[in-house]
Each structure stands twice: as structure tokens, then as C-alpha cells.
Design goal:
Low-confidence stretches: 1-8, 295-299
Number of helices: 14
Distance between the termini: 56 Å
CATH topology of the largest domain: Rossmann fold
Mean pLDDT: 93
Strand content: 15-25%
Radius of gyration: 24 Å
Structural class: alpha/beta
CATH class of the largest domain: Alpha Beta
CATH architecture of the largest domain: 3-Layer(aba) Sandwich
Order of helices and strands: HEHEHEEHEHEEHEHHHHHHEHEEHE
Bound molecules: 1,4-dihydronicotinamide adenine dinucleotide, 3-(4-hydroxy-phenyl)pyruvic acid
Strand order of the largest sheet: 3-2-1-4-5-6-7-8
Shape: globular
CATH superfamily of the largest domain: NAD(P)-binding Rossmann-like Domain
Length: 370
């Protein structure tokens, strides 16, 4: 008899021993389930919506929990933020021997609510994987969603080592990078790197509504980059922003001050000093973007060469093969394509010392670069 697909996939042993029960089988819950199933972990699922539950099980994120199932070793609460405290409390009461974690995007509000209710939090460890997608639901779930992404753990002095180890085992099994923070540090940090960008992106995209088709047709990579997350679920974000309002309000006020300063300098652009003010503000942006970690993060080790590729099958493959033949090691690749255009743009990141040679050698082979 053939083995089920999930067994065939499993090549790496899991750090997790025992059953993982996931409550909320949407994007996060199903992605966690899929990733753990790939490692043969026993995963049970629960969701308020029978359809979401059935879909998650159909996609292979785990099996629907049955009444006779043994108690789980760990429960992962992946419900929306406004019911996170309720669900954590219910899970701690239902499975007193299990460790309970949650993956909500805010950490302080659910924690304070649980403390306010007098819940014994010995077996609770809050957490938050910094990985997601614009759309929710099991349909969007991916087993590799957390690979190389930060996963914040918020423990307190009372957290037993075994409880911490179990939550860490789940995150590590999914390929995430562990980070420890207090709930306050977490919420301030995500306010800056996730919540402010969401508001700015949404409000920026909203400016496009009255634009003509002709104007929108000119849109390029810059607009796409700055508005990608504007298609995120408004209902989820109302919950996240509402639960983290203090840090987000402070950040929005500071941002509004910068917009005001910039507008004033632009209004007075012909007066002495104004151009410098504009340049200073724009260069601050350059300094800020240089701080974003990533392959090319702060080191500024790579330069980008843009290669024009004809919009026909096999062209990108040919470019990659020829780069290999030229001995040029590509560190990163990004593709841009304008709708309606017969050309695409492959932005390749390479070491600065090979950039000139790359441009010359590619040109000799007929490639056009920018
Ligand atoms: N969407 C994202 O990019 C990220 C979301 N998160 C957090 O993960 C959590 C889940 O978000 P998503 O998976 O995106 O949402 P989702 O909407 O895809 O899934 C949530 C699921 O929870 C179920 N649910 C709602 N109330 C429930 C209850 N009381 N009991 C059982 N199930 C219930 C819903 O039916 C739904 O299937 C949220 O707390 C969110 O803040 C964390 C990181 C990224
Ligand atoms: O798409 C992105 O860049 C994200 O950062 C997604 C995201 C959304 C919500 C979270 O709580 C964590 C991550």
C-alpha cells in the first residue's frame, strides 16, 4: 500500500513530542499544521467554523479533534486577536497538563486580560511569528511560511523551562528564528515594523481610488512595493491596531510631523535652506531603509543590475544559465513586469566587484541592462 503523502514528505525528525492541538484553522493555524505534519507531528484541529475546519483538514493541516483523543502536549491558539484571551483561558482549563501558546499579532492586551481575570498563567507562553500573508484562511496556508522568519516568545519569570522548550520546539520545527521579548517590547517593536507600515500602505493605496485608468496604468514597482500590504484583511487589522493603539498613535503622530515638515519645505522650495531640508528628510529615508535586515540589509554589500528580458517562455531561465556560465554569483533576484508591456525586468543583486564585468559580458551576449 502507498504511504500517505505527509509521510513520504517527512525527511527530518521533529523536536515536538506529543500531539499539537491548533485552535483556529485559518492562515496561521493551517500553516503551522502543514509545517508540523511535514515532520510527522500528530496535529489536531479545532475551529468555530465547520467549513474552515474541514478545509484545513482537507489541505492536510491536521485531523479534526475527536472527543476520545488524548490530551495534547501543546495547544496553539491561532484565533483572531479579540478572542485570543478567551481561547487561551478555555484551553488552559480544558487541557490543564498542556502548554498553551498563541500567535496573536499583539501580545500585551491578551496577557493583561488574562491577568485581570486571575487565570493561572504558569502553562501559558505568548508568542508571535513575524510571518503572514495579506489574505487569511486555510486556502492561503503554506508549510514554509515561517522559514527563516523571526518568532517572538514572550515568557515571564514563572514560565517553566519545559513549557518554554515545547513552544520553542514548534517554532524551530517550522524553521523560524527565535527571539525573546517582553509583551511591551514586542508591541512597541511591531508597532514600528508592522502596524505603522500597514496604516501608511492602506492610506496611500486609498489615494488611488479617484485616479483615472490612464494614471493607474503608469504604476510601477514603487507603487506596488509601497501598497502590497494594503490588501490585508481590514477586520483583522482593526483588531490589531485597536489592541496596540498607544504605540501606533505615537508613531502616527511622529509620521504626521514629518509629513508636515516635508510639505512646508516643499511649499517654500525656492527659499534658501528648503532644498536642503527636503534632501535631509529624503536621506533619512535612505538611512532607515538601510537598517532593514535581510540578505542585503545593513551591510550594503551588493549592487543591483537590472536586465531587460523579453516576455517569452524560457528567457529568465536562459539569463540564469548564462550568469552561471559567466561565473557571476547572483545573491538575489527580483522580477518586475508591467501589465501590457512585452518586456520584464530582472533585478539581480551581485557583488560590486563583478558588476562592471557583468554588464559588459551580458551586453556581449545580447542582454540589455539598466
Ligand atoms: N494574517 C497574518 O499575516 C498573521 C496573523 N497573525 C495572528 O494569527 C491569528 C490568526 O490570524 P489568521 O490566521 O490570519 O486569521 P484567519 O482568519 O485566517 O483564521 C482565524 C480562524 O480562527 C477561527 N476562529 C475565530 N474565532 C474562533 C474561536 N473563538 N474559536 C475557534 N476558532 C475561531 C476562524 O473561523 C478562522 O478560521 C491572529 O491572532 C493574528 O493576529 C500572526 C502573524 C501573521
Ligand atoms: O506581509 C508582511 O510583510 C507581514 O509583515 C505580514 C504580517 C502581518 C501580521 C503579523 O502579525 C505579522 C506579519
Amino acid at each position: 500500500m502507498n504511504e500517505p503523502a505527509s509521510r513520504v514528505h517527512s525527511t527530518v525528525r521533529s523536536r515536538v513530542h506529543g500531539t499539537v492541538h491548533i485552535v483556529g484553522a485559518g492562515l496561521l493555524g493551517s500553516s503551522i499544521g502543514l509545517g508540523l505534519r511535514e515532520r510527522d507531528v500528530d496535529v489536531t484541529l479545532e475551529d468555530l467554523s465547520p467549513t474552515s475546519l474541514a478545509l484545513a483538514a482537507d489541505y492536510g493541516a491536521g485531523r479534526v479533534r475527536a472527543a476520545e483523543d488524548p490530551h495534547p502536549a501543546i495547544v496553539v491558539v491561532a484565533t483572531p486577536p479579540d478572542v485570543t484571551a478567551d481561547t487561551v483561558e478555555r484551553m488552559l482549563a480544558t487541557y490543564p497538563s498542556a502548554v498553551v501558546t498563541d500567535v496573536a499579532s499583539v501580545k500585551l492586551a491578551p496577557y493583561l486580560e488574562l491577568v485581570r481575570r486571575g487565570v493561572d498563567l504558569t502553562n501559558y507562553v505568548g508568542s508571535h511569528p513575524m510571518a503572514g500573508r495579506e489574505r487569511g484562511g486555510a486556502i492561503m496556508a503554506r508549510a514554509d511560511l515561517f522559514t527563516a522568519r523571526p518568532w517572538v516568545i514572550c515568557r515571564d519569570g514563572e514560565t517553566p523551562a519545559e513549557a518554554l522548550a515545547l513552544v520553542e520546539a514548534v517554532a524551530l520545527d517550522l524553521g523560524a528564528v527565535l527571539l525573546e521579548m517582553t509583551p511591551e517590547e514586542h508591541d512597541r517593536s511591531v508597532g514600528l515594523v508592522s502596524h505603522l507600515p500597514q496604516v501608511v500602505s492602506s492610506l496611500l493605496a486609498a489615494q488611488l481610488i479617484p485616479a483615472t485608468e490612464q494614471a493607474i496604468g503608469l504604476a510601477g514597482g514603487g507603487l506596488r512595493d509601497t501598497t502590497r500590504i494594503a490588501s490585508s484583511d481590514p477586520e483583522l487589522w482593526v483588531q490589531i491596531l485597536g489592541a496596540n493603539r498607544e504605540p501606533v498613535i505615537a508613531l502616527l503622530e511622529s509620521f504626521a510631523t514629518d509629513i508636515e515638515r516635508f510639505t512646508e519645505a516643499l511649499r517654500a522650495v525656492d527659499e534658501p535652506g528648503s532644498k536642503r531640508k527636503l534632501a535631509d528628510l529624503l536621506s533619512s529615508g535612505m538611512r532607515g531603509v538601510g537598517r532593514i535586515p535581510g540578505k542585503h540589509g545593513t551591510s550594503e554589500r551588493f549592487v543591483t543590475v537590472t536586465v531587460l528580458i523579453d516576455d517569452k517562455p524560457g528567457e529568465l531561465g536562459r539569463l540564469l544559465t548564462e550568469l552561471g556560465e559567466l561565473g557571476i554569483n547572483m545573491e538575489d533576484l527580483r522580477l518586475e513586469h508591467s501589465p501590457g508591456a512585452q518586456i520584464g525586468f530582472a533585478e539581480i543583486a551581485i557583488l560590486p566587484e563583478v558588476a562592471d564585468r557583468a554588464v559588459t559580458d551580458l551586453a556581449a551576449r545580447g542582454w540589455r541592462t539598466l
